[in-house]
Amino acid sequence: MSRIERAEVFVASPGRNFVTLRITTSDGVTGLGDATLNGRELAVAAYLREHVVPLLIGRDPARIEDMWQYLYKGVYWRRGPVTMTAISAVDTALWDIKGKVAGLPVYQLLGGRSRAGVTVYAHASGSDVPSLLDDVERFLELGYRAVRAQAAVPDVAGTYGVRKGEGIYEPASTALPDEQPWDTEAYLGFAPTYLEAVRERFGFGFHLLHDVHHRLTPIEAARFGKRVEACRLFWMEDPTPAENQEAFRLIRQHTTTPIAVGEVLNSIWDVQQLITEQLIDYVRTTVVHAGGITHLRRIFDLAALYQVRTGSHGATDLSPITLAAAVHLDTAVPNFGIQEYMPHAPETMDVFRSGVRFADGMLVPSEEPGLGVEYDAEAAARFPYEPRYLPVARRLDGSVHDW
User: Fold this and answer.
1) What are 34-43's pLDDT values in tens digits?
2) Which one, of 100, 105, 103, 109, lies nearest residue 28 by Cα?
3) CA separation, residue 368 to residues 2, 256, 300 (Å)
4) Which residues form the Mandelate racemase/muconate lactonizing enzyme C-terminal domain (predicted)?
C-alpha cells in the first residue's frame, strides 16, 4: 500500500510570495498544495513544517476525507486562516495525487463537467474615469465577458484596486505596511459616477462588478447599492466587514444589488448564516483559505440549496496551484457563478507550470492527471522570500479603518 514518504515546504517570491507544499508517496507520486497567506506567509510555513508534516509521514494518501478530519479535529484549536490554509495545502496535494494515481484530471473525480469552461472576470482600473474606461475597453477587446471596475477617488491616495502604471496590481509591495488615507464620503460620492460612465459608454452586454473591499458600514453599503441599481452590477463585493453576518440583513432590506462575500472567511461555519438566510448572492471562499477542495465543495453544496452561487477569490497572491484547483472545482459544481482571475507575473509562471488555459473569456482546466501543475524548485530558488505587507487604511482623522 502506498504511503506518504516525504512532505516539503517551499517559500519563494517569484513575483509575489508563495508557500508551496509538495507531498511525495512511496510510489514516487507527487502532489502540490498552495499554502500562501498574504502578509503572514511564514506563519503557515512554520505551522506546516513544525506541526503538520510530521503527522503526514507514513499515512495513506488516498484517505483524503480522513486526513481532513484528522488535521481539523485533531488540533483542538480549530479554524482560523493559518490552520485552514495549512489544511488546504495538504488536502489539495492529496487530490492532486489521487488524480495522478487514477489517471484522471481532478474535475473528473468531482463528478465530471457541468460546463465547457469557467467564466472569469478581469480587473480594470484607472487613475481617473477616462483611464478606467480605456482599461475596460482593453479587457473587452481581449474577450472578457465580465469586468471589475475600480478608479482612484480624487485626492484620496489610498483607493483600493487601482494599479500603479501598467503592471499587475500588487498591493503587498512594501517591507512594512503602507499606511494609506481613506475618505468614505468622497468614495460614496465618486464611485457610482464611474460605474455609470462605464455603462453609458459600453452598455449592458457584459457583466460589471465592483469591489467595496469591506470599507462601508451596513447602512452606507445599503445606500451605495441602491444608488447603483441602474448599473445592474453583477455584484458589489464585500460591502461591509463580514464578522457580523447579521449586518447583511440591513443591506438586503434596502437594495437589490447582488452581494458577494467570503474571500477572508475560512470555513462553512463562517458563511452558514449568510447562505442559509440568503443574505448574499455569491460566496467567495477559496480553495487555499477555506480548507481545500474537500471543504470548499461542502460550502458550495450548502450554497446550492439556497440558490447562492460561487464566485471564488482569485488574486495573484493565490498561486497557480490554487487557480488550477479552483477551475477544476468550478468546472464540476452545479451552482458556479464566476471566477476571479488575474494573470500571474511571468516569473511566477517560470516556477509554476500550469495547464489552465484562457480562451473566450473563460478558463479551461488541464486534461492532465491531477491538477495539471508542476513546481520547479530550482527555478523557485532564484526568488528568495521578501517580506511584504498589505497596506493599512487610516481615516483622515488618523484612526485605523478596514483596508
Assistant:
1) 999 999 999 9
2) 100
3) 21, 42, 25
4) 129-258
By the 8 A CB rule, do 372 and 41 touch? no
Q: Supply the angle between the helices 81-102 and 320-332 in degrees, to the nearest 10.
A: 70
For residue 112, give every residue at least 6 positions away whose Cβ sits within 8 Å of its Cβ, in sequence order, or none: 332
pLDDT at 202: 98
| Residue in this structure with the C-alpha cell 495513506, named with its chain if needed | 60
User: Exposed/middle/buried for 76, CB within 10 Å: 0-12, 13-18, 19+?
Assistant: exposed
Q: Residues 371, 99: contact at Cβ < 8 Å?
A: yes
CA distance linking residue 81 with residue 59, whole number of Å:
25
| Cα–Cα distance measured from residue 226 to residue 148, given in angstroms and rounded to the nearest whole number | 18
- CA distances in angstroms from 268 to 283, 292, 382, listed in the order given: 10, 12, 38
- The residues that are catalytic are 160, 213
146-174 pLDDT, tens per residue? 999 999 999 888 789 898 877 677 888 77
Q: Which residues, in sequence order, are bridge partners of residue 23?
A: 7, 31
d(CA 184, CA 238): 15
* Residue 325, phi then psi, degrees to nearest 5: -60, -40
Q: How far apart are the C-alpha atoms of 64 and 106, rounded to whole Å?
A: 13
240 Cβ neighbours under 8 A, 6+ residues apart: 212, 214, 216, 217, 218, 220, 221, 247, 248, 251
Lookup result for grid cell 490554509: 85
Residue with cell 481539523: 72
**Could you tell me the pTM of the whole model?**
0.97
Q: What is the pLDDT of residues 106-136, one digit of tens each?
A: 999 999 999 999 999 999 999 999 999 999 9
3-state DSSP assignment of residue 179: strand
Tell me the pairing of strands 118-126 and 146-151.
Answer: parallel
**What's the rounded Cα separation, in Å, for the pair 52 and 46?**
9
Asked if 244 and 272 touch (Cβ cutoff 8 Å), the reply is: no
Q: What is the pLDDT of residues 233-258, one digit of tens each?
A: 999 999 999 999 999 999 999 999 99
